[in-house]
Amino acid sequence: MELNLTELIIKLSDEQENKKIFQSLIRDIVRYLTTKKIKDMKLFQQRTGTEYTNFYESLHYSKEMKDDLLSNDEFFDLIIKESKRFKF
Length: 88
Description:
Elements: H1 5-14, H2 19-35, H3 41-45, H4 49-58, H5 63-70, H6 73-85
Helix pairs in contact: 2-6
């Protein structure tokens, strides 16, 4: 069964040692994706290119936490899809 974004975030948060920091990371990812214009979404979705690098470096959290979350394909695909709905 495929989870929606909220269910997936709850599931992933429950697996974390520090849920508050993890949820802050998710909030910052959503904020970035809804406020920044990404010119080459195809490269961004492949997690390559300057725009992805800038995004990654803008997240001031541990490398391990960022890598764990952003390497989760289900999360990454859903967060991009949902962020398009709330673009400013």
